[in-house]
Amino acid sequence: MSKNIIILCTVCIVTGMMASVIQARPAKRLDERTQMCRILNEGKLDWESEPWGRGGQKFQEVCKSCHSRNNDKGAPFLHAESKMSNGWNRVFAKRRAQCAKDGSWGVLSEEDLQFVNDYLFRNAAWTYDPYDADSCG
């Protein structure tokens, strides 16, 4: 009986550790357009890739002006968790999205686009970690 309890406890601990690693917020991302590694959890990029930083603010100001619920532009509703991190990277690397093609991204500098990509990459689906102090979970 005690052997089963020990095995069960071990499985629970290992599962909990694996879940927190799998869902941890990304600390860095490869920008495919520049082939540069962007460190997201330190310095300027740490601040700018948060909702209150330039990435989050530009996403709200520019992207959400069309991609809000019940918009009249026909743009699909988007939020940070609409895609996984690698999906957001593809959107910004390939620039096949209608927004990129029709010039809507023209109001954003290349640096702003990188900050928006950083913000979306860092806050994408499956990146929430309930044990991370940043998550306030």
Number of domains: 1
Strand order of the biggest β-sheet: 1-2
Which consecutive residue ranges, at least 5 long each, have pLDDT under 50? 18-23
Question: Structural class given helices, strands, pairing?
Answer: mainly alpha
The helix tally amounts to 6
What is the overall pLDDT average? 85
Q: What percentage of the residues does DSSP assign to strands (E)?
A: 5-15%
Major sheet summary line: 2 strands, antiparallel
Radius of gyration: 18 Å
End-to-end separation: 35 Å
Overall, the morphology is: elongated
* Fraction of residues in H or I helices: 40-55%
Order of helices and strands: HEEHHHHH
Total number of beta strands: 2
